[in-house]
Amino acid sequence: MFRALFSVLSPSGARARLSIFIFHRVLAERDPLFPGEVTRAEFDAICGWLRGWCNVLPLGVAAKALKDGTLPSRAVAITFDDGYADNHDQAAPVLARHGLTATFFIASGFLDGGRMWNDTVIESVRRCGKASLDLRQATAAALDVLALGTNEGRRQAIDRILAATKYRPPAERARWVDAIAEAAEVTLPNDLMMTSAQVRSLHRSGMEIGAHTVSHPILRDLPIPAAEKEIRDGRQALQEIIAAPVRLFAYPNGKPSVDYSSQSVDLVRELGFDAAVSTERRAANATDDFLQLPRYTPWERTEMRFGLRMAHTLATT
Ligand SMILES: [Zn+2]
Question: What is the pTM assigned to this prediction?
Fold first, then answer.
């Protein structure tokens, strides 16, 4: 049923639609703190549905075909942001089993033992052995005492800390996050992100590698030379790892005019990327700016609901 429906909603040629899906992590098993996060079993099911319904293409190939008016009907590209080790350990074997390729946008600065600031927050709260966490000192009283007695409490604590820190200036955010980790009195993991060898192995197995800056900043908030350095150096690091050109880019966080600006898009153009992706939630069409292609993921976990969400998104694009 969905195959026929998508042929109508996502035809080939000049009126084509491209559904670019965005994932971050694929977990080995359910995480009680993030029950909505995709598990390997769920990702396996999604890949099976997409293989049956759609034409799954590497993003670089799909974007070029969309531009040229030669995109097949029911076109889908699968992308991952940030560079989590589970992309290599969990997602890649599933993709390979289904004969699908995906594009992995990697923030180069966290490879080989690094950690994104939001994961420092999450892992501090997850591993904290206390019943409550007093964050008044760590956050200049922006946050109070957070209860950690239940999974629900820990989840709320994570949400509140992330909301309070996300759009702080990077230096202040880093100070707060370090202070939060110290207050939690935990040992933090250093294997959440991929190693360079894992990135190389993804590339060798036929996956696409895309740039995602070095340190995942909000590009809009950076002076232009600093934003350019983030984009250029992130690409350069990946090119050295895979010994091949990197032609695709994903804006960190990716919300147009909130997380990046028109100047960021100009930089990506001047640096010669073929295509770039945002996190505007819809399907792409041939009239879109190829340096700001939208992405979305149906969060529904049953075949029927997932298919209907995709159909709805295609119908309203
Ligand atoms: Zn990201």
Answer: 0.95
